[in-house]
């Protein structure tokens, strides 16, 4: 009985330590300022793509490698869209990852919320971001994203990326894009 109670106490302490580490990491990321909550869907399908019950169609079937030299667009290849029968299109709510974005000069560093990694998962370079459209969450996205989220579809070196953020964060993001140094191509549709 004492062994079971000791084991339960150790598990509880480890769980509390893990929660504390999540909170500490978030506080350290926000310490330097310039952060905002930003959900990300990498290699998102275009709204014109058709989706059937098998999950095929455009980018919905097999994934492509997210590729840019030097890790400027991203560090990891995109994952498969999902199993057979899973719909992954605009409004499906699939593929979104919760995160925190931080401005750092001419790039945005994107960190996963549910991770202990101190380094950003993705880098979004200002000179390579092209805004395609702005829309409100549709269908299952309303449940998958925060209640006040606005979705901004962008192209990043040929990869379609969707960012979901609050209206205030979107205003700051678009102002940051427009504040590019002279001579830099900026498309803020």
UniProtKB/TrEMBL annotation:
Residues 49-92 are annotated as: Disordered. It comes from the Bacteria. This is DUF2550 domain-containing protein. It comes from Streptomyces nanshensis.
């Amino acid at each position: 009985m004492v062994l079971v109670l000791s084991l339960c106490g150790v598990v509880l302490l480890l769980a509390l330590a893990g929660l504390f580490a999540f909170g500490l990491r978030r506080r350290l990321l926000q310490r330097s300022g310039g952060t905002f909550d930003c959900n990300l869907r990498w290699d998102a399908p275009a709204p014109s793509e058709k989706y059937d019950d098998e999950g095929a169609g455009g980018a919905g079937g097999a994934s492509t490698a997210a590729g840019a030299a030097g890790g400027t667009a991203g560090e990891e290849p995109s994952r498969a869209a999902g199993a057979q029968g899973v719909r992954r299109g605009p409004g499906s709510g699939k593929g979104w990852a919760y995160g925190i974005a931080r401005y750092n000069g001419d790039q945005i560093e994107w960190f996963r919320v549910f991770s202990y990694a101190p380094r950003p998962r993705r880098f979004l370079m200002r000179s390579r971001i092209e805004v395609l459209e702005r829309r409100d969450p549709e269908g299952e996205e309303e449940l998958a994203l925060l209640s006040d989220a606005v979705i901004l579809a962008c192209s990043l070196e040929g990869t379609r990326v969707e960012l979901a953020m609050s209206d205030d964060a979107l205003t700051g993001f678009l102002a940051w894009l427009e504040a590019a140094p002279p001579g830099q191509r900026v498309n803020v549709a």
